[in-house]
Write a structure and sequence with these properties.
- Four copies of one chain form a homotetramer.
- In chain A, about 60% of the residues lie in helices and about 5% in strands.
- Chain A is mainly α and about 375 residues long.
- In chain A, α12 packs antiparallel against α13.
- The longest helix of chain A has about 40 residues.
- Chains in contact: A-B, A-C, A-D, B-C, B-D, C-D.
Chain lengths: ~375, ~375, ~375, ~375
């Protein structure tokens, strides 16, 4: 049975929502690996190592539609990564004359790590869009209700009078920080290291090839001879996406708490959404709840990535590298889902300034006691 | 676009391997929810609350093949869980006469939590089988090579002479402990709490209904009126499966280290597997590497589950409950994959007593310095 | 500068509270190691390997008051564990005639792991007491206010009428499960493995010595020849204490939420506690807040322990073993602190049935909309 | 019993090593809080809100030596943070005329968060120094042995010939990235928000006061009215220090693996260090092992901080804020310890080019098979 047909995720509605889900699909990952192979051939042509028509022939074959995705993913189990069957398939596609120029001097990790940088970049663009949309929506809510007086709540207790504008300002700032953190991961550093990781397999033009490779991929090239097992790019990615998930979680938490029946200062309103299987009168802030649930997956995934990042031994890690893949893939998706759910929550949000005023009055009575 | 068609996992070969992948598919989860609905109706018939034929009619409709899985999972996003659309579909299937008896007095969490117990039980059976097979294979290797002298290695340094039997004994013990821990999760406690969680919606026969419900599902019924938000079953599950993943990781780590070219006391041998995209002479212990990579996902998932378990507020959690689902689903799969990969590794394992002897002799020379 | 004088914890009031703090102090750990050395000598006398008076002389010296704790802890850095300087000191204390019988045939890990079992056992007794006290207090509150009607809250929304008894029942059940989980760690399995871990250094009486050793320590002896690097005891410990911390966190979360000014159905009342640096009228549920804060440390520590448990290579781990120590030590303390804070919170708890009734009435008005 | 006297850490030699231990002591934290109070008074004088002599009198009292540290830390348990007793003590010290100007318009979180920024900055300076020293030492080793041929090892298998210079380059790059990440946390953003978090308590000169406050502390001031519960500074800190710990762990792992008896290409040599309690001939790379052990604590702490960062509700968090403190404190220390241990390891490192050459020759023989 093929890997993809064995399951459709029961909880994808929660943690594989929004455009990042498609940007991290199996085909999307394989396309990114093919993009890296095409960029490599192109860079070697740029450096005069292989003829331009050879590179063009390789690039022409680097389209995932030309591959049997399920078969490649199934064969990935044999060598421990998808590049091995992908390169075999690519060589077959381009024919014997061009085949020797495919994956020339490279090793699987050159391609997988470059593909990772591409998938992260593409996902980061989507999440950046989502965060900007959330910020814009927050600004609209703030513009409309920002001056509404409300009681501030510290440690769950009524504190002193404030305004709803302080809430929306806080949301905007957190989401803006999140967007900046995500944007900083759009150009992950990659290495063109070859079998030993030190780049010597690429010969005297290694530096030029690496520069062209990075430019073609739109990523940054790492230090020349340090190899694949220095994982600060992975760790930096983990920290940044973890920050973004936390920012989304905080806003969603505020929505959930302000939407409590006992507070009722905001609510999510949408046709068909938020109902209960047993209580027709209930109106649950499902989008904020889902944003929280998706975002709560992130810290554990960050810790997995950091453990892995610190565990790459010698010139190629026997486990820690492979362990990064599903955790990174998942961290992209859960953060993307959290942001998408949050956008939905903010779009559904209705604000009740009257209830804010009533709670504030009530608070004054409590303080009098 | 349906949730399931948007992606086939790029890294499923690593972390969705073995029988647990199918046992945790979207259809498998929905079937488990339908099993819970059928058990509920059956239990209510057992207690004389609804007519037996009504319960039978419900049970007859509780087959996932009769539902549009993708549509149900897409609609799950509206109310925040799959039970809401599933119950709607079920009521339509059984017709207006029987419909009122569907999901009677229950709430979504009654069903989702019971389905979780079923999916865990089914997955536990598979992982238990895998662990027993791994133990048996370890015993066979031990029987054949257990008396081979080898140097023990502590903190990476040659220590004193030992035998390979000490290694296989250690592996066997760890995997046996893992099997016991997994087996202890086959009967997760569930609650039949209804909308408020305290079971009162089920009326005076609550206890009898709950007992029948649990018996029909093959799980344990929890304390009667404590509700859904006391999550020691989730936490106990997390700990047990985390233990099993760690046990598998340890054996895989030993294989990877003993298979180092510089040690060479064991190797994985299999046609077609373990090759390199750049180095034909290499022979990588891919199955052990993959087992480690899958198992390394577990601790982060356990921490997510424990955070969630401690964060269920009041009578139903607004996020922490939903956060459990993907983490639990993933923990089942990564542990299942780790055990499956480990089985493969042990099946491929060849032991080299001559190399052990040579390394031991060499060690004596080192100690002489 | 000695290790102990360099700092007094700024946040010990939060995470080193209650009797577990003393049970996990530096002197307490060293005493546990000395207890293990005394038990080893005793067991070897029991088995006839060394003279009884020799064992008695060793036992007589095994009191931490006879050692310079700071010096031992400073010297621990040289060999990577405290047993090395402790054994040196012990040999000096007992004099040259008895010295050769100290730590006979053992290795550091025999002693450190046994000491860990002792520290866990002693801490578990304290936490068990704390949990039982919390359960008793919960029962008293339940007995007094259990029949008070209140609105149940699911996903933050008013659901249907329930009683406060459902809340206290849930608390009691969670804390009872926690006590059972903690109690199961009172007899951690230990190994007497010697330098290679396979026990052969102890000669033909290894099994008898190991049995006497375990009996004297009040712990369980592990399988005979599997060595030190099979860490299911560590993983089981981590899961159990993680479960207990989650159980405490859940109760504390309920207190914090029910104590919100907007709900006000419970409050912590204590002279001098719960004030604000800026708002005199505030009454913060500080003990519940602190319980949550302490308990939130646990999941990350559990994940550290599980990562370590799966990473013990070959016959002694070069890092993963050492990594267990501070995480385990900390998990004991944060869980102990969470339980202690929770006890305090429950002792301070006042329940307001009038407010419950008022909120319930208000809820009926909300449902009418 | 005072908090500080109840324990001296058993494992401080491992995870409270180097200058960060002192920079994160209880007195160091209280001094940072006093520095924040002094800066606040100074800033208010700068803005003309209080007389300069009043601010000077406050600053003159803000020295931790003038406080009973244990008493303050014990009293911290009453209100849930140390600022409350510290402000009480400070007001007493300055006398009734000046007392009203102490902590004017501020809330505890203003001070605790600013103190955190100071403790992080001071710790970052130490860790930066340590990383630079490690980089320098790596460069020296590289300059001396960089051209030594050695076999590269990928997935534990001999790959192709490389040089030791590739190893030291990789180490240098990772540690350089770590230093950059740490340096970026030297100016954490803080907020001067007052009781409601929106800064209004500080009146019309809030912005000026906040600017002076930040300048005096050498930190950055956050957006003006967003309050305390937007925690991207905490999340960014966590990611950066997690990255640094991973970088240190990777270098230490390489040392441990290259020092294996079966490889022997490097070793740690130091008088008195690295011995065994049972095997005199062993030479363990204790400093690298300890660096790994300390660094392995980091990912779990990062996940705790990210969970907390995403869980700050409304205007002040009832648990998530308090949960940050011990985790942040500990993350500073374990990362500081890992870097300190790594420095020690690199200073002790001896390189064996002859063994490298011998292993490379042996590798050629293996490939011939």
């Amino acid at each position: 049975m093929s890997p993809s047909s064995s399951r459709s995720d029961a909880f994808g509605f929660l943690v594989a929502r929004g455009p990042v889900a498609a940007a991290t699909s199996g085909p999307a990952w394989l396309q990114a690996m093919l993009d890296a192979e095409a960029a490599l051939a192109g860079a070697q042509a740029d450096a005069g190592e292989i003829p331009r028509p050879t590179a063009d022939a390789i690039a022409a074959a680097c389209h995932v539609e030309r591959f049997d995705v399920d078969a490649v993913l199934a064969d990935a189990a044999l060598g421990g990564n998808a590049v091995i069957p992908l390169v075999a398939g690519l060589r077959e596609l381009v024919g014997p004359a061009v085949a020797p120029a495919v994956h020339l001097h490279a090793t699987s990790q050159d391609i997988v790590d470059a593909a990772t940088a591409l998938v992260v970049r593409r996902s980061a663009e989507h999440v950046g869009d989502g965060l900007r949309a959330a910020v814009a929506h927050t600004a609209r809510i703030g513009a409309r209700y920002g001056t509404s007086p409300m009681i501030s709540r510290t440690l769950g207790q009524h504190a002193v009078a404030s305004t709803f504008g302080a809430v929306t300002t806080r949301w905007r700032d957190g989401l803006t920080d999140a967007a900046a953190a995500i944007a900083a991961t759009q150009h992950m550093t990659v290495v063109l290291g070859g079998p030993s990781g030190d780049g010597t397999s690429f010969g005297e033009h290694h530096d030029r090839i690496a520069d062209h490779f990075a430019r073609r991929l739109g990523v940054w090239i790492g230090p020349r001879s340090g190899g694949h097992t220095q994982r600060s790019p992975t760790a930096a990615f983990a920290g940044a996406w973890g920050l973004a998930a936390a920012a989304a979680a905080k806003v969603a938490l505020d929505v959930v708490l302000l939407a409590q029946s006992d507070i009722g200062e905001v609510a999510e309103r949408a046709d068909g959404a938020g109902g209960s299987s047993s209580m027709a009168h209930k109106h649950n802030p499902i989008a904020a709840i889902s944003a929280r649930a998706a975002a709560m997956q992130a810290p554990g995934l960050v810790s997995t990535l950091l453990h892995a990042a610190g565990g790459h031994e010698l010139e190629r890690a026997a486990g820690a590298w492979h362990a990064e893949w599903p955790a990174l893939d998942q961290l992209l998706r859960v953060t993307g889902s959290a942001v998408d759910w949050l956008q939905t929550s903010l779009e559904r949000l209705v604000v009740d300034p009257d209830r804010m005023a009533a709670n504030l009055t009530r608070s004054a009575r409590l303080a009098d006691h």
